[in-house]
User: Fold this.
Amino acid sequence: MFKFFENALKSYIVDENEPSLYDRIKFLEDKITLLQEENIEINNCLYEMMNSIEAVDRRIDIIMEPYDINKFTLDK
Assistant:
């Protein structure tokens, strides 16, 4: 009779070596936190790069201001 219950409950027995549901949830929460922090860092880096590119673009415009770019053409 106990064999019957043992066989019936075999699919519900959790291996002791497997992490518990709480451990899995905790792992995923930690991973989400890490990914959010990395996302913030990446956004900050992209913002800094964008500002640097815009600053260089403004400097190029200032340097090229005295020259009339329209008179430099590839047509002969």
The CA atoms of residues 40 and 46 lie 10 Å apart. Helices lie at 2-9, 21-64. The chain has two helices and no strands.
